[in-house]
Amino acid sequence: MASFLAARRLLSTAAARRLLPCTSPPPPAPAALCWLSTDASLPPPLPVPPPEPTVDPPKKDGASFSAGSGAGGAYRTGQGAASGGRRSGGAGYEEEQQKVLRASLLHVPRMGWSESAMIAGARDVSVSPAIVGAFPRKEAALVEFFMDDCLQQLMDRVDAGEGELLKNLMLTERLSRLVRMRLEMQTPYISKWPQALSIQSQPANVSTSLKQRAVLVDEIWHAAGDSGSDIDWYVKRTVLGGIYSASEVYMLTDNSPEFHDTWTFVNRGIKDALDLQKSYKEVAYLTETLGAGIGGSIQGVLNKVFQK
């Protein structure tokens, strides 16, 4: 009986321990609960795994950023592509320079052939003024661009129909007309043209200036109908080049209406030069004829002497 009561007391004590919470401090066990339960369906929570290390992908020189690099990577990709295309051909950069130089001509009558005019032209076409620093000879580049552009305009006018009108004129009139057409292109810049001549005469620019004038004179002769290739080719271009340069300087001091005195000077200079050339040829032909005649007379006299 006593053993039965002791066993019942032990069972009651065990049942009470299963239902009452533990009031003692939790043991340093990994389990989060301290309920005394035998249910195996509630395993203790697993520890949080450590974060995995991130490794950046290797970057290659010249490679563009991937799409996962975000908006900044996309911007750098586009910028690199644009600069790479510009370096390969350079056409876009040259076109910008041409636009700046052409716009700068509008500021020359007020600012002269200067870097300030080029900066103003760059702003007019929405190009950074820093592009002016890309010209090694800033003012000279502007003057040389003007010379080339005027030559192209002259040839375009000849091809567009002016050449047909020139065919009905005499040679002196054709040359005078072409020289006048070219000089008229300088009238908007006549007040600043002494500065342009000074820039062209500088040692670093004189070779290019002479080449441009030689090409201009050659094109004028071709447009006038000259296609010779003899020694007169050099004489004609040298003479016309001198007349053009003298007329250019004369134009700077001409105060007549619409440069009337300059055009008279051009007409007279070309006419006198061609007349001189004609006179020279006539003298040469006459000398040759006289020489042949004198030679024939001497030969006849010698024949008569030896016959005797």
Characterization of this structure:
- With 308 residues, this protein is mainly alpha-helical.
- Among the domains are: 91-135; 139-296, Tetracycline Repressor, domain 2 (Orthogonal Bundle).
- Helices cover 66% and strands 0% of the residues.
- The chain has helices at 2-19, 70-89, 91-104, 108-111, 115-124, 138-166, 171-184, 193-200, 206-223, 232-252, 260-307.
- Helix 3 (91-104) crosses helix 5 and helix 6 packs parallel to helix 9 (206-223).
- The longest helix is centred in the C-terminal third of the chain and has 48 residues, at 260-307.
- It starts with a helix and ends with a helix.
- Residues 19-24, 29-40 and 57-89 have low confidence and may be disordered.
Tell me briefly what this model is.
The protein is mainly alpha-helical. It has 11 helices and no strands.
Topology of this protein?
Blueprint: H1 2-19, H2 70-89, H3 91-104, H4 108-111, H5 115-124, H6 138-166, H7 171-184, H8 193-200, H9 206-223, H10 232-252, H11 260-307
Helix pairs in contact: 3-5, 3-6, 6-7, 6-9, 7-11, 9-10, 10-11
InterPro entries: COQ9_C (IPR013718), Ubiq_biosynth_COQ9 (IPR012762)
Main location: mitochondrion
GO molecular function: lipid binding
